[in-house]
Structures are given as C-alpha cells and as structure tokens.
Amino acid sequence: MATKMENISEVLKILDGALRSNASMATSYAGLLAEKLEESGERQQARLIRERLARAPSALASAQDAADGISFNSLPVDGESRLHTVDVSKPDVDSTTLMVPDAIESRLADFLANVEHYENLQKAQAALPSRLLLYGPPGTGKTQTARWIAARLNLPLLTVRCDTLISSLLGQTSRNLRRVMDYAEQTTSVLFLDEFDALAGARGNERDVGELQRVVVALLQNIDALSSNTILIAATNHEQLLDPAVWRRFSFRIPMSLPDPNMREKLWRHLLGDYATKDLAWKVLVEYSTDASGALIEQVCLDAKRTAVITGKPTVDPLELFRRLGLALALVQGKILNTSNQEIVYLRDWCRTIFSLRALATLYSSSTRQVSTILNGGSSNGNTQKQRKSEAK
Ligand SMILES: Nc1ncnc2c1ncn2[C@@H]1O[C@H](COP(=O)(O)OP(=O)(O)O)[C@@H](O)[C@H]1O
Ligand SMILES: [Mg+2]
C-alpha cells in the first residue's frame, strides 16, 4: 500500500499501538486511517483496512465507529463533540482549592506521588495502577478533588458523566466507554468517571438487568485494558451500589466525608474571604453548620456575598448569613418553610443565640412584638385571643 505522507501520523500511531500491544489504540487509529482514505477517494484501501479490523473481535467497536463516520478524533478535543460524553477542562492550581482533613490529604499525596514517580516505582516493581476511587455523600468535594488532582499534575481533565453516558446510549454504552477510554489513552490526561455508580452499579436496579450486567463486564474489560499508568479517577455517592469486582480494580480508595469543625472553619473563612465582618461569630457558625457539606457552605457564602454586592455593602450581613445557613439546612432535612412566619419559628428554634427577637425583627422588617406574637403561635397574647374569638364566630 502506497502510504501518502498525510497519513503517516496514523500509521505511526498504529505502529505505536502494535508495539505497545495496545490493540485498542492500533485499531482506533486504523479506523481513523480508513476514514481518511475513504475521504480522499481511496475506497478500496479503506475497505481492506475495515475488513481486517472486522475480523478481529476486539476491533469491532472502532471499525463500526469508522463505518458510522464517527472517528476517534471527533471526541471533544476542541469542545465540538458529536457525542457530548466527555468534557475537557484544564483546572488550574490557583482557582482550585481543596480543603480536606490531613489524613485525606496525605492519601491524596500518596496517589499523586505514585503518578509522579510511576516509572521509577515500576522499575522497582512497586508501582500501583493509577486508579483512584472517591466515595462519600454529595457535596463533599469529590468532583473538586478530581479537578484538584488534574491541576496538581498540570494535565487536562476528561470528565465523563456516567449517568448521561448510560441513558443516552443505552445498548451502545460499551462501545462508547471504549471510545472514551481509548481517547484517554492517547492524550496524557486525567480520565474522570463522575457519578460512577450509574455504570458500575449493576445490581438492584430496575433497569434491564442483563443490559447493565453487560455494561459492568464491558467496564471491567475496559479498565483492565487501560495501561496501568493511565490516570483514572472515579467518584460515587453510592459506594454500596458498586459491584465488588469494580471496587477491587481501584488501588487507591478515598472516603470523602462531611467537614469536621476544623475544616468547616477553614471553608467559611476561605469562602467568605474579605466579605467576612471583623466580629463574625465564627464559633457559632462552625457549631451550627455541623451537618453541612462543603457544597452547602459554599452555596450559603456565595448567596450572602451576592446580596452584599447587590446592596452595595462591603461585607456580608451576619444575620443574613445565618438565616441562609439555617434555611439551607432545613431544606436538606426536608423541612418545608413556605411563609416568613414559618421561617421565623424555625430560625428561632434552630439557633437562639443568633436569632433574638430583635434580630428576627430586623431581618423580617417587623417589630419585636410582632415577632413574639408569631413565635407564641398566637397562644399567649391578647391579639390572638381576639383573633380566635373572631374565628369562632
Ligand atoms: N472539601 C472541599 N474543599 C473545597 N471545596 C469544596 C469541598 N467540598 C465541597 N466544596 C465546594 O462545593 C462544590 C461542590 O462540591 P463537589 O466537589 O461537586 O462535591 P461532590 O462531587 O462530592 O458532590 C465544589 O465546587 C467546591 O467548590
Ligand atoms: Mg460530584
């Protein structure tokens, strides 16, 4: 076959793949080459390549892709994807802060060290595959951790939202997974499978069990086929749904948890920054955010900061900050507060230290008398007795 110079890069990649015994790389690029040949009118040559690919079972996926005109290159390298299964980003160190307890930090450092010293570790036969599983409740910083790692390694982050992968490509999930992983192998990057349980939670799901089990098998095969220095991070809120075989594929597993008091203080201080008042009741803030995730704290800070900016204040209003925190926590606990009166009763009950009658009156632009009426639920003062009488009539 007389190879034109313009195809030399594919030929070299195919060669690379073959030499590295990386069949998926070789076949993907062969598929791409076939496509290019076809485009330039070399139908016969394209057909020969595709026939050869079709004969190798493992090459099926890529050959089909090529036949569909979906090439390997069309993964969203430049943000223009036909698939929308991968999002490419380049998080930077300065804007990606992560606040985790020191024990977690040192486990993350272990993972980073394993990646950074991979070659030497491998020579010493002490390398672990660069596979990290992050698990824990929502909003505890799993996605943030993936960004942080990519930033630390100065590599692009390829984020795959596994739930969209499976719902939009039911029946084709395995093929799609393959494509994503092949792509990750070609570029030096961090492959991040977010909402991983969507893929890896085979059992106890109401979806077609056979379909999902096939997905799990494909997932295992794909993870196994990755070269062990390909950096793979997966994150899940539901680790109990993970198939044990999938779980075992990850050499590093880090549980993320709700922030402890120390972390909460750091988060509050960092996220409020210059918008904190000098005399802010940090202790109370830390104590009353016990059940809050990092994400919730961030949301509360952002909202309070926004209000400050919009109303032209240099700092957040502490009362407003506490109110937002209280209401956010109520929401998480499923408490529904529809009226100002309900909010007043809830806030007073939630944190008496902050929500004095006067504070509530200020917040809700009413008098302490009105607030106290609301708090007493109308049972202990003249006004409401009158009301009751009128209701009884
Ligand atoms: N430990 C943390 N350190 C820094 N920021 C955090 C932390 N936890 C949560 N956040 C903030 O909350 C937001 C949501 O967190 P995220 O990483 O998406 O949580 P998860 O993926 O665990 O649901 C992030 O954008 C981040 O700014
Ligand atoms: Mg997340």
Structural class: alpha/beta
Mean pLDDT: 82
Based on Cα principal axes, name the global outline: elongated
Low-confidence stretches: 57-82, 379-393
Just name the CATH architecture of the largest domain: 3-Layer(aba) Sandwich
Estimated helix fraction: 55-70%
Bound molecules: adenosine-5'-diphosphate, magnesium ion
Cα radius of gyration in angstroms: 28 Å
SSE order, as H and E?
Answer: HHHHEHHEHEHHEHHEHEHHHHHHHH
Strand order of the largest sheet: 1-3-4-5-2-6
Number of strands: 6
Count of alpha/pi helices: 20
Instruction: Kindly estimate the percentage of residues that lie in beta strands according to DSSP.
Output: 5-15%
Question: Mind summarizing the main beta sheet?
Answer: 6 strands, mixed
- Distance between the terminal alpha carbons, to the nearest Å? 100 Å
CATH topology heading of the largest domain: Rossmann fold
CATH superfamily of the largest domain: P-loop containing nucleotide triphosphate hydrolases
How many separate structural domains? 3
Q: What's the level 1 CATH class of the largest domain?
A: Alpha Beta
Verbal overview:
- This protein has three domains: 70 residues, no CATH class; 169 residues, Rossmann fold (3-Layer(aba) Sandwich), CATH 3.40.50; 95 residues, Helicase, Ruva Protein, domain 3 (Orthogonal Bundle).
- The chain has 393 residues and is an alpha/beta fold.
- The chain is elongated, with a radius of gyration of 28 Å.
- It contains 20 helices and six strands.
- It has a six-stranded mixed β-sheet with strand order 1-3-4-5-2-6, with helices on both faces.
